């Protein structure tokens, strides 16, 4: 239980309240009653208890406020109330505002309203619907899903791009030789997606070859390889060896040495003449000595060299002819498409090398002729360069290409398919790269995850709304107990609430007709009825016995006719008879159903009735009573003055305070001085109301009783001090304080003179 409020500072109208300096305040009991007039600080005090309930300082007083309470569990301050574990329930004007929601329903032309949990539930439903709309979007707004869906839609456009690109590949790249559609493209896409760049052919020559190869409809006939028996190096080596030789000059025949024609004629003549033969030219006998001389001449080194040179020249002629007779393919068109361009390039290289080889042989042939005819005894340095290896390489390259071409023709079906697949992969990879597919795919995947999260959130919110709507249905259908409380409050059976089946909201009916407006009293009755339903629910759950309850002025908007009904409801709700413990002869005793009960009121009659609700304070240990007063616009809690138990009504008490004040010798020093305006105003309200109950405003009633001049004089000072409403008026003393004495004296004198019998009755009520 809460034992006391040690202090309250800067908490609304409680600027500097100290429990220890506020008279002989006894600790709170299980039942506690606060009495105070309107604007004295009762509602503000209830908001301190709301702070305990909510574990945070009430929003109106959060800045600079502080307080401290003592309980059986220890002390709690404004900055530690979040650790307060006791459940607290508070009924005050905030509860009415927070737990009732009123609106005019045009469809039924009446007031619809919700109470308690259904307000929070419907607000949660609306909040969920708003969040769903924020995600999904509406006709006028773009939802959170839109930006992610746009990324998905951008990716989905690839379906159209796939179709268009597949058509282009089939018709343009393969001239319709293959079947290729979106399905083929997507299959290749899935195969190369992990490394798109690897499928792209970067070699321009290879790409050019592929572009031609894939368009081949049928293969060409196989080609013969180029037959080239390469003896050029041997010929070159033999020729250069002969050109470098220098034979001995022995047994020379001058005429033959100087004339190659004569040399050739004589050599041929020696071959056809034998010893003893006549000369076939002149007919004369050839002397044996001449034959021997010629034979020796033609068998010397020079002659032998000339013989080798002539044979080598014949060999060179054969080599040149062999080069001229090389069996190159007759036409570029004999190659399959895709090999033709490379053949042209290789053939050009081969012809250049062939020309070089022919030039080498021609140079050697010329040098050998010169050696034979002019310089048989001198070495000759040839200008011929041996480049036979490069010709061999060129021929080998051509034969390799012919081999590839023939292999392609031989295995056309499998190879053309492989080449086409290779080119298809290249084209698809280039397409994906150009369209930034990987980026679009990544964005789409991330967007789908976000959409999945948002969709899950929507489903969660929708499922939550299903449950919440079910709760509203349950709350709405359970209005029977609420009706019982409302009818008890208003003491009328013709008033009841019904559930609108279409909206699950309440409508108030007076008899058989829907109410088109609700009075403040009816609203209070409905709100407090809901509070009592809440209390009943806590008791059913077994939680009320551990709950602290604070009820602030439950009859603030109700007339005095309802105080008995409310008092009866409070008694039924919070008073319980339980078996008495100990050795007492009594079998039962009264207790309260909650852990601790606090009730505040401005109505003196209601206050007196509250004192009768068991448990009373007859034994002095189960009920505590306090007085809340406002002095100089600052509230204080003090012990309830003894006069409150002495007088039978608030009206008598108020008159007693005024009477005592006017009879004090030093009124300026009276402890009643600053409280007198509030006391006086409340007395005037009751006094004038008894005279003219049809007038709503106290000023009008006072004008009628005292006359306009006296009324303004009496009420001016009272209005000033009982309704302080500016910082300047709070912070400094007013000259009007000196008029309090005069106003009260004038009032007492007026009643004594003009309403003597009434004055005598009032005086008797406080002196007997």
- The CATH class name of the largest domain reads Alpha Beta
Mean pLDDT over the residues: 83
Could you name the CATH topology of the largest domain?
Answer: Rossmann fold
- The counted number of beta strands is 17
CATH superfamily of the largest domain: P-loop containing nucleotide triphosphate hydrolases
Major β-sheet strand ordering: 6-12-15-3-16-17
Low-confidence stretches: 724-733
Classification by helices and strands:
alpha+beta
- Biggest sheet, open or closed, and with what strands and sense? 6 strands, mixed
Gyration radius, to the nearest Å? 63 Å
CATH architecture assignment of the largest domain: 3-Layer(aba) Sandwich
Compact description:
The chain is α+β, with helices and mostly antiparallel strands and 768 residues long. Helices cover 55% and strands 12% of the residues. The protein is rod-shaped, with a radius of gyration of 63 Å.
